[in-house]
Amino acid sequence: MITRRVFVGGALAGVAFGVLVPRFAAAQAPAPADPNAGAAAVLRLALSSARMQARVCEIVLAKDVRPELRGLAETIVAFRREQVPRLETVAREHGVAVVPVLEFEHQVALDNLAPLDFLALGRRFVELQQQALEQEITIWRRGQGAAEPWLAALAGEILPRIEALLADARKGAVVVVP
Fold this sequence. Notes:
Blueprint: H1 2-28, H2 37-61, H3 67-93, H4 104-113, H5 118-144, H6 149-176
């Protein structure tokens, strides 16, 4: 009788293990990867950088700065006013969710710029633009290698503009060197 109970109990445990564990494991399996995950990261970072740079330029344009820096700020803000809505539209068209909130490091950089005046503002503006544009070039280069052809094409189109802005920012750096 005891042997029979052990056998029946073992059989039931085997059935339970064989049937329930795979179902539990399937329920715990990770969700399939989002096909737009790479695109979302590229667009999120690029949009945050673009928004931050536009705001930085608006701060610079509202204050007294060297004419060369004013020209650089006007060029960048004009490009960003065109680029940001376009990136938002592209994200919507391809089902990529992006939020209008700046990345933490971009918000901190923006907050630290606001209290500066004239010479300190000019130096920090050029330094910040160079750093942001270099970061953005890295972001868009990652986009060029993306699996999504639309993102690779967009990156190929935007990269030359960003590289030209970086060259302009480097020229502006010469003006404010101490």
